[in-house]
Amino acid sequence: MQNKIYRALTVLRHEGPGSFGRKVWAKITAYRSQMKPGSFVDEQEYQNWISVNEPDPDELNQQRREAATFSYRPLISVIVPVYNTPVSILQKTVQSVVDQTYDHWELCIADGGSTSPDLAVLLNRLSQDSRIRVQRLEKNLGISENTNTAIRLARGDFLAFLYHDDLLAPFALYEVVKMLNADPAVDLLYSDHDLISADGKQRQQPLFKPDWSPHIMLSSNYITHLTVVRRSLVDEVGGFDPEMDGAQDWDLFFKISERTQRIGHIPKILYHWRSGSDSTADNIWKKEYAPAAQLRAIKAHLERKGLTGVRAFFDPKSGFIRVGWDVPEPPKVSIIIPSKGANALLETCVKSIQARTEYPDYEIVIVNNGPQPPEDFEFYRQVTRNQRVRVVHFSGPFNYNSANNFGARAAQGELFLFLNNDTEVVEPDWLSEMVLFASLEDVGVVGARLLTDDNKIQHSGVIIGLTGFAGHIFAGMPENQWTIFGVTEWYRNFQAVTGACLMIRKGLFNRLGGFDENFTLCGSDVELCLRVRKAGYQVVVNPFAKLKHKEGATRGTDVPAQDYFLSYPHYLPSLQQGDPYFNPNLSYWHPNPRVSKPGEQRAHEFVVSFLEKLR
Q: What is the pTM assigned to this prediction?
């Protein structure tokens, strides 16, 4: 990898930034076209990752010594509800707590009236340990009330939730308290996790998560395990709600997130979720009541946020969760499309909007950018007979951002949708789906799912640093895929989306000064999104708002070199620290999520170092 980077530097030195930019983009485009879809990580690849990235016995002993020196050593109460758990399994669960390299913990077990004599013997023996507190109930009260009973036993400031058949990594609580020492104000912490086979012999199917992403929670309780929550907040929201059994933790995390945004992510595998015949670890439908509870939890959360007409359902096409709500007085949307004349791509784009858009209140503002005036084109004369369509003429030299800003000044809508002319509407609810999220007060930019002609994903969010500079996650993959970075159909937060289909409120766009016209073609969309985030708003991709996109069909793949260099200062913080909506355990060299290898990480660091010098 480093040899390739040195060759790239040679091109930059001898052929100039223009040739360098073109060749970099050509390599990225060629690489994306070769990507093959995949689901979970290869078994051997994951075992190799474990051996490289997780602490060995010597490092675990070092953690024990360091843990004793932490200036802040909170008591962590590990909460375990039990019901007829096989004795051998519960012994392993308890042992995973005993083996922790952080020693200031207690284990709180509530048994929901189990009928196993052997289990009773084990619980009595465990209760002889002063660190383990056990309460046996006369009958099974359900997962929520059993857990609430265990919580009432707890004396710690923080609660760590552990199911009776799962395992903690030996360094789990050490990493939790390490983060609390770095930021004692954190109220909720979560980690990455993987699954462990029913016999406990095989670790598999890791889930490497992004930092706190509130809109993913509308698709999945992605934080799941390991989760550690400040006790006072759990008490404040009333603990677990028995009415939400099957999604009781999802409901609790929603309520916690409604009260605090001090949520930390530990990008390490700290929890091993057992996959068994009755476990929902790999299939929520194993418990018939769970899917309905999940929808109730999502619906209740959205209603507490003040939304009306809330809907949560499993999409009949994909099988994944979708949400909706009423948008009071749906705003007028101005669809702003720059185009060099009335070419065939533009005709396809505009006709698809007109034929397939169910949203009632929109206008199309075509920005004719080129030497020929609009009256020279028959299509413009035809299309403007429809009162929804206007053509404005931008006579300056080509600049994608100047043309968009010019169109915005002519637009009349409350929402701006910047759209490339090489797009085509796929689903009739595409615009309604984008407006849905743009109606949320905390959302500043909404992006869509863009597809290639063969229905592969072309865009579903931008990760800064991906493929070396900035790339589209899941590019080249089919839809409806499970990956080690979660599901392609999750609503997701990102730092940026592509300007090929970008929605933003008119007031926010104007307040931020629009697109930066120092850029010519590329990078300005990411830069605008970063300004939106600095202003305190979220950037969201709705995968159910779908269009096709013939990337580069209008202007080709020749990216102006100055756009690369203008982007550097804006991208560098994420290149240096990692994109918060990605995961440092994943490779930055593959749009299709896969675990990072040591050589890839070194190559990424080399690129960052090089870019810092360019700055």
A: 0.90
